[in-house]
Write a structure and sequence with these properties.
It is a single chain. The protein is about 65% helix and about 0% strand. It is an all-alpha fold and about 280 residues long. Among the domains are: about 90 residues, no CATH class; about 70 residues. The longest helix is centred in the first third of the chain and has 33 residues. It is elongated. The termini are far apart.
Length: about 280
């Protein structure tokens, strides 16, 4: 018979509560199961796995959603464009003179842009012409680099041919040039520029090395005579005599271009006219 004042209690270390009528010894060695704590890393992995599982199950939603987003984006872009047009029209009504010509036809805009391109190519053309004129109008320089006018040299022939083609394609009116004509003209000017640079480099490299010693001596004499012919300090008779002698020294060696001869004769004739009473 149980003692009326006997207290039933769990043994030390026991985790389970005692039950009425059951001795505490029956629960010896038993403990209350504790709640397991999940590490933070495993909890994160679990959430990621859930997301991946959802994406794997509903991947087909990408196609309808992409269509919805595309339609939404297009409608937003159209609305923005309409707002912009309304603003421009409103500004145009308020300031008609400000936007004069701002809404020109595409053909007119293309023609204006093409005209600027033609002007740019013409400047390139003029620059190459200027370089060539520095030889063509300077007889002494041509004597120093005789291959620049020697038509027996293939590089010189190629340069002169490229110049002729570029000159023939140069438009008279910039506004009436088509895209095809502009492309052809630009290509011709580029070829002209390259051909001149190649011919000039070769002329500076060889100088008068293709002539014999006697011929080089004649060239040097002709160069000195040309210097006298264009010297304003010399008398008219001295200039004329020097010019005639220079032509004789160059005969059979170098063929001076017509522009070079005309420039020399005009300068000598001008000096004679200035000294007449």
């Amino acid at each position: 018979m149980a003692h009326p004042h006997r207290v039933w209690a769990a043994a030390p270390g026991a985790g389970l509560p005692p039950r009425a009528g059951v001795p505490a010894a029956a629960f010896a060695g038993c403990s209350r199961p504790s709640a397991r704590r999940v590490p933070p890393g495993r909890a994160y992995d679990g959430r990621v796995n859930e997301i991946l599982a959802f994406a794997g199950s509903y991947w087909w939603l990408v196609f309808p959603l992409s269509g919805v987003f595309a339609i939404w984006g297009k409608s937003w872009s159209d609305a923005t464009e309409r707002r912009h047009r309304r603003k421009v029209e409103l500004y145009r009504l308020k300031h008609p003179a400000t936007l004069h010509g701002a809404h020109a036809q595409p053909e007119q805009l293309q023609s204006r842009g093409r005209g600027r391109d033609v002007e740019h190519v013409e400047r390139m053309h003029d620059e190459v012409d200027r370089k060539w004129l520095s030889y063509e109008l300077d007889a002494a320089k041509l004597i120093d680099y005789p291959t620049m006018t020697d038509v027996r040299e293939p590089l010189t022939v190629a340069f002169l041919r490229a110049k002729r083609v570029a000159d023939s394609l140069r438009p008279e009116d910039r506004t009436g040039v088509s895209a095809e004509d502009l492309a052809e003209y630009r290509s011709a000017v580029t070829s002209y520029d390259v051909a001149f640079q190649v011919a000039e480099t070769e002329a500076r490299r060889v100088r008068a090395s293709g002539f014999t010693a006697a011929e080089r001596q004649r060239l040097e004499t002709a160069r000195k005579l040309v210097t006298v012919a264009v010297d304003d300090a010399a008398t008219a008779a001295e200039r004329q005599t020097a010019y005639r002698r220079a032509r004789r020294e160059l005969d059979g060696l170098i063929v001076l271009p017509d522009a070079t001869i005309s420039d020399l004769e005009e300068r000598i004739a001008g000096a004679i006219d200035q000294r007449r009473p």
